[in-house]
């Protein structure tokens, strides 16, 4: 095929942001930092280490490197407690229909996520085997908005970046896709994701001929 798709995970395939929030909130409480759902928006699509820096900044708290390592481990253990309870009911609307459509058209897709827990999450919801490849937080050295994660994805698809379509819910992810010279599709709030080439509120809104039209171009 002449095109391929790269999916972000959190906010596109599943909503794990709510579990990240619960785990960060626990940590924030321990550190006496006030942390709200609005603050949580700042962490979407951002790496784990960077997320901690943002949280500490909000609370004006400094920690030693050792303490940082320790709280990152406990935050992740807490988060994994929620992830291990996930199942296929948590797949976001429109995802399965879209994957079926891509399968029937022979269009390949990979995952491009900042999460080091991405394979586990896909396994929990029963989608792991469907992807041609997984690029996650373990395989990249530079976090979004750096395009690295998506450029590795293009290699896995055996396609040039211009032939890849990226579905993303975070500003940093859209920026990464644009820098990679890919077609960026923002999923979520159109005003927030105004740098995207296309915008849809969720995956059920993708028109039937969306991919055909892109192939024609
Ligand atoms: C996801 C989330 C981020 C999270 C990051 C790292 O990214 O949106 O909030 O900080 O993964 O996750 P972990 O702590 O599991 O390694 P994405 O790229 O899937 O949206
Ligand atoms: Mg995301």
TrEMBL record:
Family, per entry: Belongs to the HAD-like hydrolase superfamily. CbbY/CbbZ/Gph/YieH family.
Plastid found in the keyword field: no
Organism of origin: Flavivirga spongiicola
EC number in record: 5.4.2.6
Pfam families xref list: Hydrolase (PF00702)
Gene behind this protein: pgmB
InterPro entries, alphabetized: B-phosphoglucomutase_hydrolase, Beta-PGM, HAD-like_sf, HAD-like_SPP, HAD-SF_hydro_IA, HAD_sf, PGP-like_dom2
PANTHER family: FRUCTOSE-1-PHOSPHATE PHOSPHATASE, GLYCEROL-1-PHOSPHATE PHOSPHOHYDROLASE 1-RELATED
Listed name of the protein: Beta-phosphoglucomutase
Catalytic class of the enzyme: isomerase
A molecular-function term among this protein's GO annotations: beta-phosphoglucomutase activity
SUPFAM superfamilies named among the record's database cross-references: HAD-like (SSF56784)
Keyword terms of this UniProt record: Isomerase
